[in-house]
Design a protein that fits this description.
Elements lengths: L2 E12 L2 E12 L5 E5 L2 H11 L7 H6 L6 E12 L1 E7 L14 H14 L4 H17 L2 E7 L4 H14 L2 E5 L1 E2 L12 H14 L7 E3 L2 E2 L7 H14 L3 E5 L3 H10 L6 H6 L9 E5 L5 H10 L2 E4 L1 H6 L7 H6 L3 E4 L11 H18 L8 H13 L16 E4 L11 H11 L5 E6 L2 E2 L6
Parallel strand pairs: 1-4, 5-6, 6-7, 7-9, 8-10, 11-12, 12-13, 13-14
Antiparallel strand pairs: 1-2, 2-3, 4-15, 15-16, 16-17
Helix pairs in contact: 4-5, 5-6, 6-7, 13-14
The structure holds zinc ion.
Zinc ion binds next to strand 5.
């Protein structure tokens, strides 16, 4: 035990309720993992001592439990909560955040998204924009993310180095695309594989905070050869996979034409080893049902729900309640720049509101509660990165310290304070951020 934080601790072990410890304690070991969490210091020490009787414990661990070797940090009246996880975001679209919101998907891609992504052939431009992007993820308390970069290997490397320099966790994808896209955003299968291998060589530690993630943009922009090569890379290097799934009906029809043997969109990925053979996250799943839902469930594929993007691009309302009832893994994505807001706290609010629209149409499916949304943003999404997103012993300590003095003017309960921060707060109340036990300062611009 190296550090003990005292604060009002709130987290969600289970999706239906918050754990609330008023003036509670949380012990964090030198490896960055939570050692124990308790309502008072005496039970924390007792709890940690019980743990040391496990076979893995040794003399050095006993020494760490020595009260003389423990720093107690009193955070006073502040809230201590798990940090946020963003399961789907396009870093090179950051400049386009909040513009072209009146366009439909196709003109939006052709006139805004693709021209912007082409600029990332220029590594100086990439560094300038990516610094801003990483800094703003930090501002909003997102300590882990699954990120799409562009096809450009060197710009992608810059983004990965920026995450590493910041000390924040990220799975970063060099994007694979070679059909139905402008020439400047297409590369050969061979170039794609070589680019990945050079990134893998630099970021190869399995427990590293920053790692590559295999990223075919989506089926319509990749030839069968490219999809096949992506599946092979994932298997050979045991790397996770991310892409888009069932976002809109035209896209689903297009996939059916391109992959006529597939029984559903998800099956088209599955045929190339890109659907749960290694940890996989798929964004949107607005129209997922039947066989595709079963396939997601069977393969443990993570769904990245992107409510702001689904609203802005007018795709539809994903059946999140049904996904939860069926036991699917679900987290949130900001999906910049289809989505306009980088704050996962705001994404929680949109997800709840969107589920209320769904509920108005179909009362058989209850809308999402705050604890469910919080659980999705923390423990559920965090599971894509390992033991992340909770304060249970063994979890990596990814945390935010919230100073809500300016919002807490009338003796609200701790849960009401958290709810108010989520609904009406912003980065100004986030006082400290931790990733894997380390306090993370503002990344340099
Ligand atoms: Zn996307």
């Amino acid at each position: 035990m190296k550090k003990v934080y005292k604060a009002h601790i709130l987290y969600t072990k289970e999706r239906n309720r918050f754990e609330v410890l008023e003036n509670g304690y949380i012990a964090v070991d030198s490896d960055g993992c939570v050692k124990g969490v308790a309502a008072d210091l005496a039970s924390l020490v007792a709890d940690a001592s019980k743990r040391r009787t496990s076979p893995a414990s040794d003399a050095s661990e006993r020494r760490e439990l020595d009260p003389d070797d423990t720093e107690i940090i009193d955070l006073g009246d502040r809230l201590l909560i798990p940090a946020m996880n963003d399961l789907h975001v396009h870093a090179p679209q950051y400049r386009n955040q909040g513009i072209a919101m009146d366009l439909e998907l196709l003109p939006w891609l052709q006139n805004y998204t693709f021209p912007e992504e082409m600029k990332y052939a220029d590594t100086e431009y990439a560094e300038r924009m990516y610094r801003r992007f990483v800094r703003d993820l930090w501002r909003f308390g997102t300590m882990r993310s699954c990120v799409f970069a562009t096809i450009h290997t060197e710009s992608t490397r810059i983004l990965m180095r920026l995450f590493r320099e910041a000390g924040m966790g990220a799975l970063v994808g060099k994007v694979g695309m070679n059909r139905n896209c402008p020439e400047g955003l297409s590369e050969s299968v061979k170039q794609m594989v070589q680019g990945y291998e050079s990134l893998i060589a630099e970021f190869k530690e399995q427990d590293g905070l920053v790692r590559p993630i295999i990223t075919p943009r989506f089926i319509p922009s990749c030839t069968p050869e490219m999809l096949h090569a992506c599946g092979e890379l994932a298997a050979r290097y045991q790397l996770p996979v991310q892409s888009h799934l069932s976002e809109n009906k035209d896209e689903i029809a297009q996939v059916q034409r391109l992959e006529p043997e597939s029984t559903c969109y998800g099956d088209a990925y599955d045929r190339y080893g890109l659907f749960g053979q290694t940890p996989t996250v798929m964004a949107h799943c607005v129209f997922t049902e039947g066989e595709e839902l079963e396939l997601i469930k069977r393969h443990g594929v993570m769904v990245a729900h992107c409510p702001t993007s689904n609203l802005n691009v007018t795709t539809g309302i994903a059946p999140i309640r049904q996904f939860l009832d069926e036991g699917l893994r679900v987290g949130f994505g900001s999906d910049i720049s289809g989505g306009h807001d980088l704050s996962i706290f705001q994404i929680m609010v949109y997800a709840i509101q969107m589920s209320k629209l769904h509920y108005q149409r179909n009362h058989a499916r209850a809308f999402l509660t705050l604890s469910e949304a919080f659980w999705m943003a923390t423990k559920s999404a965090g599971s894509f990165f390992g033991q992340v997103g909770s304060f249970e012993p063994g979890y990596e300590f990814d945390a935010l310290v919230i100073d809500d003095r300016d919002l807490n003017h009338d003796n609200y309960s701790l849960l009401e304070r958290l709810e108010r921060f989520i609904y009406i707060g912003d980065d100004r109340q986030i006082e400290k951020r931790f990733c894997r036990g380390k306090e993370i300062g503002a990344p340099k611009l």
